[in-house]
Design brief:
Elements: E1 4-7, E2 10-14, E3 25-28, H1 31-39, H2 46-63, H3 67-75, H4 82-92, H5 99-132, E4 138-141, H6 155-164, E5 171-174, H7 181-192, E6 198-200, H8 205-210, E7 216-219, E8 223-225, E9 230-233, H9 236-246, E10 250-253, E11 259-260, H10 277-280, E12 330-333, E13 340-342, E14 347-348
Parallel strand pairs: 4-5, 4-7, 5-6, 7-10, 8-11, 10-13
Antiparallel strand pairs: 1-2, 2-3, 8-9, 9-12, 13-14
Helix pairs in contact: 1-2, 2-3, 2-4, 2-5, 3-4, 4-5, 5-6
Bound molecules: 5-S-methyl-1-O-phosphono-5-thio-D-ribulose.
């Protein structure tokens, strides 16, 4: 089953917000529907976003009266993963040739990502064994499997390839706060593949490394800058620091479509801030028995303006700080902390001074 595809004139996606509870397919027939799906992370992960951007332009070419406006909507739906704008622009370049040419380009991008996943799985698995020896014990972050691509995956593709070779030690899925792409999605994919795994809270990663329980960190990227800085899901940088301190490899697996030579360094990348609600709202932590995760956090927490201090039973008298949160969805791992980047075409050993 494909995470995203073109089916009978529409874009079909697996709704990742419904997992792991329900496996649901959404059929999207307009660019507006697709943009909403991208923004609420029903479809997510850099390579899948590249395909979404391109297929969105194919929708626009067929149905929109103003395809150029639709392309702008698509390429700016989320700012950080370079694949989204890259996919949309590559398909848009065929607009003058007509709708069928645009669709052909979008399907070519889809097929290239499928091929790239297969190549990364082999190359990534080989490198992990080379760096760590037989049966490596791995920690991964966010979701980089089939759900983040079309089929296969990037970093998780390499983990699954080791499993297929019966060469995997253990795997820890870092839960990935606040939207739990690791705990919900990576764990779901590992389970379906028959891989035994453990989920850990994000903050446990560096400690597990310090305690000698992890041989390497392997994760994906939303953008790889010209100097080798890696932009990936928030929490990746902490794992990189932990790996550096523990003296273990930090390996990034991403397709060439994620390499962005036009962006010099991580400092030049717009990091998406997804707003307070994802961090503050109640109902997200069942273990708390309905208690809000922060004072005043309720179902609508974070939706009020930053100056609104009226939320909560005794707001004001308790002297609560303004109910707000900072929620960067990604971080920057400086290239000095990256051992190697594996793409579908090459292995770049940053630890040996090789350049992107
Ligand atoms: O916010 P998300 O879920 O789209 O973030 C995804 C990630 O950060 C992934 O690690 C990255 O896109 C690589 S996916 C192969």
């Amino acid at each position: 089953m494909r995470t995203i595809d073109w089916v009978d004139g529409a874009v079909e996606i697996i709704d990742q917000t419904a997992l792991p509870g329900r496996l649901t397919v959404l059929r999207l027939t307009t660019v507006e529907q697709l943009v909403t799906a991208i923004q609420r992370l029903a479809v997510r992960g850099a390579p899948a976003l590249g395909v979404a951007g391109a297929l969105g332009v194919a929708l626009a070419a067929r149905r929109s009266t103003d395809p150029a406006a639709a392309v702008r909507l698509l390429e700016t739906a989320r700012p950080t993963a370079v694949n989204l704008a890259w996919g949309a622009r590559r398909a848009a370049a065929r607009l003058p040739e007509g709708a069928e040419a645009v669709l052909a380009e979008a399907l070519a991008i889809r097929d290239e990502e499928i091929e790239a996943s297969a190549a990364m799985a082999t190359r990534g698995a080989d490198l992990l064994v080379e760096l760590c020896g037989a049966r490596p014990r791995l920690l991964t972050h966010c979701n980089t499997g089939a759900l983040a691509t079309v089929v296969g995956g990037t970093a998780l593709g390499a983990v699954l390839e080791l499993h297929r070779r019966d060469a995997l030690g253990t795997v820890v899925a870092s839960e990935t706060r606040p939207l739990l792409q690791g705990a919900r999605l990576t764990a779901w994919e590992l389970g379906r593949a028959g891989v035994t795994y453990r989920v850990a809270v994000d903050g446990a990663g560096p400690f597990l490394m310090a305690r000698g329980e992890v041989d390497a960190v392997v994760l994906g990227a939303d953008r790889i800058c010209a100097n080798g800085d890696v932009i990936n899901k928030i929490g990746s940088y902490a794992h990189a620091l932990g790996a550096h301190r523990a003296g273990i490899p930090f390996v990034v697996v991403a397709p060439e479509s994620t390499v962005d030579l036009a962006t010099p360094s991580g400092a030049d990348v717009e990091i998406e801030d997804r707003g307070a609600e994802e961090v503050l709202s109640a109902d997200r932590l069942p273990a708390l028995g309905g208690q809000p995760p922060v004072p005043g956090g309720g179902p609508d927490a974070g939706s009020a303006g930053p100056d609104d201090q009226s939320t909560g039973p005794d707001a004001g008298s308790a002297g609560w700080a303004t109910l707000d949160a900072v929620n960067p969805a990604f971080d920057v791992t400086p290239h000095e902390l990256v051992t190697a980047i594996v793409t579908d075409r090459r292995v770049i050993r940053l630890d040996r001074g090789e350049r992107v």
